[in-house]
């Protein structure tokens, strides 16, 4: 169950990061509220996952899901730059996540 909590927490991190971008510095109400609710839910689920998972594993995977997810959303929906180096960096992050998962018991 901890891994499911961690996955959902990571997905919520993507949601709140996108909502924060759309809030234009917290000047728009709805995206600002989504950001705050998403943050609280993401942190709560991360804390729930950490009851069972090691700190290093849980935090690394949570931030990795958020970082790569925000990267993909930025390229896909926000027209951010695509380059071989940026894609390579994302591949390295995903590789690290896979290794972190494989190394945990």
UniProtKB/TrEMBL annotation:
Bilayer-spanning residue ranges: 29-47, 59-78, 84-102
Main subcellular localisation: membrane
Keyword rRNA-binding set for record: no
Domain of life the protein comes from: Bacteria
Keyword entries, A-Z: Cell membrane, Membrane, Transmembrane, Transmembrane helix, Transport
The protein, known as: Guanidinium exporter
UniProt cross-references to PANTHER family, sorted A to Z: GUANIDINIUM EXPORTER, SMR FAMILY PROTON-DEPENDENT DRUG EFFLUX TRANSPORTER SUGE
Short name of any one Pfam family annotated for the protein: Multi_Drug_Res
Protein family according to the UniProt entry: Belongs to the drug/metabolite transporter (DMT) superfamily. Small multidrug resistance (SMR) (TC 2.A.7.1) family. Gdx/SugE subfamily.
Subcellular location: Cell membrane
Topological relation to the membrane, as annotated: Multi-pass membrane protein
């Amino acid at each position: 169950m901890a891994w499911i909590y961690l996955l959902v927490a990571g997905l919520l991190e993507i949601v709140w990061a996108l909502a924060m971008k759309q809030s234009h510095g917290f000047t728009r109400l709805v995206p600002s509220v989504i950001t705050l609710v998403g943050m609280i839910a993401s942190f709560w689920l991360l804390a729930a996952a950490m009851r069972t998972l090691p700190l290093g594993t849980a935090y690394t995977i949570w931030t990795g899901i958020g970082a790569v997810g925000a990267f993909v959303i930025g390229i896909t929906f926000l027209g951010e730059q695509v380059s071989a180096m940026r894609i390579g960096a994302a591949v390295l992050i995903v590789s690290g996540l896979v290794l972190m998962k494989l190394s945990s018991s």
